[in-house]
């Protein structure tokens, strides 16, 4: 994470301290399987290296499944962004994912429900 940020800043010829400093607000958004790493291990690594800021806002969510199966990029069971945005407006995708966010319990992405939401709710109500 940190080295990727350093590399990114160098490639753009920016100073890393303009983006990563003790005034920076950090938001960590992840699934429940990453809670131990992002709430205990990563802050300990940063603290040990005396790199600030430590994670400030940690948002953990439940799982999002696809057609009631675990999403797996290695098994090609996923929704690929480049494919879905060719057919659907980004706002429609954002709308569906927002109203079906797995914040308190696991949620499922169903193509049938997405298309219904896209046609009747998003286009029908907000169009």
Give a quick set of tags describing it.
single chain, 127 residues, alpha/beta, 2 domains, two-stranded parallel ribbon, 45% helix, elongated
Largest sheet, in brief, is: 2 strands, parallel
Strand content: 5-15%
Give the quaternary arrangement of the chains: single chain
Approximate shape: elongated
The SS-based structural class is: alpha/beta
Please provide the ordered H/E string of secondary-structure elements: HEHEEHHEH
Radius of gyration computed on alpha carbons: 19 Å
How many alpha or pi helices?
A: 5
Structural domains: how many = 2
Distance between the termini: 39 Å
* Average predicted local confidence, pLDDT: 89
Q: Unreliable runs, pLDDT <50, ≥5 residues?
A: none
Number of strands: 4
Q: Approximately how much helix is present in the residues?
A: 40-55%
Protein name: Class I tRNA ligase family protein
GO biological process, one term: methionyl-tRNA aminoacylation
GO cellular component, one term: cytosol
Domain Methionyl/Leucyl tRNA synthetase: 1-126
């Amino acid at each position: 994470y940190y080295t990727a940020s350093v590399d990114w800043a160098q490639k753009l010829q920016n100073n890393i301290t303009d983006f990563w400093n003790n005034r920076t607000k950090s938001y960590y958004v992840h699934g429940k399987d990453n809670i131990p790493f992002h709430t205990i291990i990563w802050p300990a690594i940063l603290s040990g290296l005396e790199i600030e800021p430590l994670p400030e806002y940690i948002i953990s969510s439940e799982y999002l499944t696809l057609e009631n199966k675990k999403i797996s990029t290695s098994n090609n069971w996923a929704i690929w962004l480049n494919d879905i945005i060719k057919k659907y407006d980004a706002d429609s995708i954002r709308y569906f994912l927002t109203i079906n966010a797995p914040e308190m319990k696991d949620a499922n992405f169903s193509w049938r429900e997405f298309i219904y939401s896209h046609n009747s709710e998003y286009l029908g109500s907000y169009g």
